[in-house]
Input
Amino acid sequence: QVQLVESGGGLVQAGGSLRLSCAASGTTLRLFTIGWYRQAPGKQRELVAYISRDGSTNYTDSVKGRFTISRDNARNTVYLQMNSLKPEDTAVYYCNKVFYAYNWGQGTQVTVSS
Output
């Protein structure tokens, strides 16, 4: 059974940093395009960054230059380093396959205070 567990969220002041982790069991993340998504209250879930099988990365415009997605194949974990955080980054963050998603995990709450 596939399980994705997100962690690393928290409360941070604007301008601060957090590193999110996505640990997987029952699957091998390096074999898929894995994305970090976020959902703010009252808004739809959006894809903010993804890493492809070949390691190439892509970001939505609002986080370019501030967020970095990476993958540790040995740990079967995908990370999202978030720097220069803004209040508008406040959301629950999730990871999942970009294509043919697994069941969604619990996510991790990121709250950025102004």
Remarks:
- The longest strand covers residues 18-25.
- The two ends are 40 Å apart (CA to CA).
